[in-house]
Design a protein that fits this description.
Layout (H helix, E strand, L loop, with lengths): L2 H26 L2 E10 L2 E10 L5 E2 L2 E5 L5 E6 L2 E4 L3 E5 L6 E2 L4 E9 L10 E2 L2 E2 L1 E3 L1
């Protein structure tokens, strides 16, 4: 077989292996986030709703977003808190790991420090979510 034939064969194999898996992951993790802050003296709380706007179930999730450098999350509900500062990282609790298309997860936090501006981005499984007002 020629080098061109082998290259085409390798590309076809990679497309079959990488293409569908990557596309499925992007669809499965399509999300929209609503974020509402309520300040109080010395800190703030935030209500967060993450909605699956994709066409496949999200099966297990890690949720990330940036936080003001002066703030530290001291409590997070409906998710396991993995990192409380700079970039907040949370993970499903098992019982809420699967989110069907159109379904949502209600999360919340309490933090000390300044809320500042709303986070610039949110991700679920490293896929950027859209914002909902």
């Amino acid at each position: 077989m020629s080098r061109i034939g082998r290259a085409i064969g390798v590309l076809a194999m990679l497309a079959g292996v990488l293409g569908p898996a990557s596309a499925a992951r992007a669809d499965a993790a399509a999300c929209a986030v609503k974020y509402k802050v309520s300040p109080y003296t010395g800190g703030f709380t935030a209500e967060i709703t993450v909605t699956n706007v994709g066409d496949q179930d999200i099966r297990g999730w890690t949720f990330r977003f940036p936080l003001e450098t002066t703030a530290t999350v001291v409590e997070f509900w409906n998710a396991q808190l993995l990192a409380p500062t700079v970039v907040v990282i949370t993970q499903d609790k098992g019982w809420n790991a699967n989110v069907a298309p159109g379904g949502s997860i209600s999360l919340g936090l309490r933090a000390v420090g300044t809320a500042g501006a709303d986070p610039a981005w949110f991700t679920v499984n490293d896929i950027t979510c859209s914002r909902v007002s």
